[in-house]
Write a structure and sequence with these properties.
The complex is a heterodimer.
Chain A (H helix, E strand, L loop, with lengths): L1 H21 L10 H34 L15 H30 L6 E8 L2 E6 L4 E5 L5 H4 L17 E4 L4 E7 L4 E5 L4 E5 L5 E5 L5 E7 L12 E6 L1 H21 L6 H20 L17 H5 L1 H10 L15 H13 L11 H9 L1
Helix pairs in contact in A: 2-3, 6-9, 9-10
Chain B lengths: L1 H12 L4 H9 L4 H26 L1
Amino acid sequence: MRSLWQWLLPTCVIAGANQAQANGWNMPVGVTDISRDIYGLHMTIFWVCVAIGLLVFGVMFYSLFRYRHSKGAKAAEFHEHTSVEVLWTAIPVLILVGMAVPATATLKNMYDTSEADLDVMIIGQQWRWRYEYLGEDVAFNSNMSTPWEQIRGEAARGEHYLLEVDEPLVLPINRKIRFLMTSDDVIHSWWVPDLAVKQDTIPGFINENWVQINEPGIYRGQCAELCGVNHGFMPIVVHAVEEDEFEIWLAERKEAAEQEAMGVDREWELDELMARGEPVYRAICASCHQAEGQGAPPAFPALANNAQLIDDLDWHIDRIVNGVSGTAMPAFRSTLNPVEIAAVVTYTRNAWGGDTGDAVQPASIAEKIVQ
Amino acid sequence: MWSIIQSVLAALIGVQKDRKRQQDFASEKPLGFIVAAILVTLIFVLILILVANIAAG
């Protein structure tokens, strides 16, 4: 009987642990050296806890059974036993110090953001992430791309439901990337389990973290700090690519940014502004003001058939550039570029039967942003 | 003197012989215990600072 237990118990425990890993119940091993260190620590400490648990409860249940009242056991009555008390104080201290040594080494490594090859600013916003490649003139917003029909239950859910974005964060593998993390509004938290990064982004503060990804792939995460009504709709997608692939991507993004900057000065037609404005509206505005501009009063006013908006162009632009203090409407002066703002203003003034015919020029928006 | 330090160290880890406890409480003046406790706490904090500096260095 005893030999059966000796064999069965460890087998069950190890099989259970493997099962937990396969089912995603355990934390992922991840794709960075630090994530592997953290996983190793987690498992070491887990097994230490298992051993302590088995030992303590084993002794307790054995004693309960072996010295039970019905067998005539008598309680030993003594008040103290100093050496045993010293022992059960010293052993946990040694165990804790033993766990603290490797944990501290990992923690030190995690906080060492020096000598990074690439700096990426991560900015939390209600409800999207903004990524800025510092010194590279590349910056973009990353919005959830799961269609609202799926969220409302009007369409079948896709494979990456609520975990897909229009523009993923693209990072090179094998390079040390420093993250500078902050927020424009409330506290968010940038969490990607496979990278072992879960860091609060706090308005007015810059938190630092770093990764060096070992394997190319797509890694998904979510905002991990309750940040408002659409907290569940600001996922994170990281594309880790080979270094030369990253350089090509970065060059393309730089060129696109230059093209966009040149577009500010030229005259835009109403049609092209409308075409440009619609995706911006869907990505940025529709989560509050709704797909057809009907809004959700009183929190989110309607844009369709909004008399004040149609009558007063300057007022309309000011709302978007500078936001509305004390409401959920943020300032978009640094989130959207002049072309995008001009396009989305034009779109909201002409879609849904507005038909003002206003083709707002990016150059005029650029002037307002400078003011 | 050594008896007081021993009692303070015992209090630090929360384990003390009953006989020793009664002996301590028979003493009239608490000042010795208070001074020793403050000193031992300071030394403990200094050791922690030292360990933290070694770990961070």
